[in-house]
Amino acid sequence: MKIGFDIDDTLINLREYAFHIYNVKLKKNVPIDVFHRLERVEIHEAFELTEEQGAEMWNSSLEEIYFNACPPFPNAVETIQELERRGHEIYYITSRPKVHGERTLEWMKTQGFPIEGERFFYGMKDQEKIQFIEKIELDYYFDDKPEVLNTLGGKGKTTVVVKDQSYNRNLNFPRILEWKDIENFIDTREL
Ligand SMILES: [Mg+2]
Predict the structure, then answer these.
(1) Which residues surround ligand 1, an ion (CB under 5 A)?
(2) Over the stretch 91-120, which tens digit does the pLDDT of each residue have?
(3) How do the pLDDT tens digits run along the chain, 191 residues long?
(4) DSSP characters for the chain?
(5) Could you tell me which residues come within 8 angstroms of residue 183 by beta carbon, excluding any fewer than 6 positions away?
(6) Count of CB atoms situated within 10 Å of the CB of 86
(7) Contact, 121 vs 91, CB < 8 A?
(8) Residue 101 Cα, ligand 1 centroid: separation in angstroms?
(9) In angstroms, rounded to a whole number, what is the distance separating the alpha carbons of residues 115 and 80?
(10) What is the greatest pairwise CA distance in the chain?
């Protein structure tokens, strides 16, 4: 089967990692339960930053957020390794900017994610991502972002699964909480 994954906040715990970086850089101590209650993808409101300040903070921290020690979610690497071992085609589709694409690919490899060069795609805006996923006819696609899931869901042949996050709890798709539970969503033996 063709199985696609978003990266940030689907396979790796990027926002929570960024939340810690913000606390350090801003010399704050905003507790993690504030993070777990956020109702949008952006995290700056927890630090009382405006939209503009938030964008600036994100962009100035990007190098550290993307390419340092952001942890994959538990069992994400092992789960995808196992899917690949069983012969599934694994696709990664991220909206990370083009300029960071190749380094992201290398960084993901160093984390242990199995990646075939031609199945790694980056630099797509939400709408492009949706069109692309429809075009390559994935059997399954996993993402955290409401805008992407809502537009994709129910169209074409791709079954979409939402990676549980505080800002997507109102979405009515199959929902994965832990990567070790992937077999509850797809029959991974089937090719
Ligand atoms: Mg994401």
Answers:
(1) 6, 8-10, 144
(2) 999 999 999 999 999 999 999 999 987 899
(3) 999 999 999 999 999 999 999 999 999 999 999 999 999 999 999 999 999 999 999 999 999 999 999 999 999 999 999 999 999 999 999 999 999 999 999 999 999 999 987 899 999 988 888 889 989 999 999 999 999 998 887 677 899 999 999 999 999 999 999 999 998 888 777 65
(4) -EEEE--BTTTB-HHHHHHHHHHHHTT----HHHHHT--SS--GGGGT--HHHHHHHHHHHHHHHHHS-PPBPTTHHHHHHHHHHTTPEEEEE--S-GGGHHHHHHHHHHHT----GGGEE----HHHHHHHHHHHT-SEEEE--HHHHHHHTTSSSPEEEEEP-GGGTT--S-EES-GGGGGGTS-TT--
(5) none
(6) 12
(7) yes
(8) 15
(9) 10
(10) 50
Give dist(CA 18, CA 67) in Å, integer: 11
120 strand-pairing partners: 92
Q: Are residues 43 and 130 in contact, defined by beta-carbon separation less than 8 angstroms?
A: no
Our measurement of the distance from residue 180's CA atom to the centroid of its chain's CA atoms, rounded to an integer in Å, reads 16
| Residues that are catalytic | 6, 8
Determine whether domain 2-12+71-184 maps to CATH 3.90.79.10. no
If you measure from the C-alpha of residue 8 to the centroid of ligand 1, how many angstroms do you get, rounded to a whole number? 4
Return the bridge partners of 5, or none. Answer: 92, 142
